[in-house]
Amino acid sequence: MLPLVLYDTPSKLPGNNWSPNPAKTRFVLGYKNLPFETVWVEFPDIATKMKEIGASQNKGSDGSDIYTVPVLSDPNTGALITDSWVISEYLDKTYPEKPIFPHNSNGLINAFSAAFSGLSRPAYKFIVLRGSQILNEPSMEYYIRTRQEFFKENIDEFSPEGPKRDAHWEIIEKSSGAMKTWYDKSSGKWLMGDTFSYADILIASGLFCFKRILHEEEWKRICSWNDGKWEKMLEDVEKECNLV
């Protein structure tokens, strides 16, 4: 079997990867034991590279058509897929062993994804701020400029120390409480009881991003919540997906 090719954005961090959406694809590939290699593309080069390989555009948060990562190329089938959700459905259909949408749960997990994304969205500016700080210089300039244009605000005003930052942390902590409630209602280790699914990957991808972009003491703060639930959760998913 030829290795699949994952297009992702690099960083200054060891190992490069940090972004939650490509992380979802990594977790799925690892869980299914599919060989893959990574092509790293800096933010300002994404559109050029995606046009070059013939990838389709995705929908931006403002509804515009834009080129994004992750994109997955499968030389075994000739498929070229954009968007982490579409990639995950493709992988589950094409390589059905060890399903991530068990019992035809695509619709249910899609609804869960929307609910999960909505939890921390009000704190998104803090996440953007921290994300900008771990990027390589070409991507950092592009990332900051485009986010400032989108929010119509200087990045220094996104989440300054003080009341605004405190409010963002309150949102993130409240989100963790909601997630713990979901797991507490499960009869097993995972959200679907003893059955691992893409729902667990969604949460782990967010945690992975936090671990990578936050300052060490900030990540430790999250790890201290809910009796250490989230550090253990991320470790369990990484082990389940053979990414330890």
TrEMBL record:
Residues 9-99 form the GST N-terminal domain. This is GST N-terminal domain-containing protein. It comes from the Eukaryota. SUPFAM superfamilies: GST C-terminal domain-like, Thioredoxin-like. One of its GO terms (biological process) is glutathione metabolic process. It comes from Paxillus rubicundulus Ve08.2h10. GO terms for molecular function: glutathione transferase activity; maleylacetoacetate isomerase activity.
